[in-house]
Design a protein that fits this description.
The strands form two sheets. Strands 1, 3, 4, 6 and 7 form a five-stranded mixed beta sheet that branches. The protein has a two-stranded antiparallel sheet with strand order 2-5. It is of the alpha+beta class. It contains three helices and seven strands, in the order H-E-E-H-E-E-H-E-E-E. It is elongated, with a radius of gyration of 20 Å.
Amino acid sequence: MKPLLTTLFLLITTLAFSQNSDNRIHFKVDQLATYHGGYENFSKYISENINCKIKISKKEKNEVQLRFIVEKNGSVNKIELLSEKPFVCSEQIAEALKKCSGWKPALKDNKPVRSIVQMDINFEK
């Protein structure tokens, strides 16, 4: 009887813990993570929060590809720069993104979940 009660206790504890601390990154979600105000507001936020005053020639790459996690609380984490040939301001963009707090997390079953966002940031030539 004692081993059965111990096993039952462990099973209930494990189920309760796993339901309360779902830290998985979800790829299939009902609603994607979005920036408040959409992509245009996000681009505006990035351009206003980096100090990158350079001229870009026609031959230079003018975009940065980023991948990051939007957490359940809307914060940004684990930023990766994916561009083959990094743009001059890549690190400044990543720093601005770390401070960015305007994200709505992805939803699955009407609950906020962690998800990955991948996007390109383009700069005017």
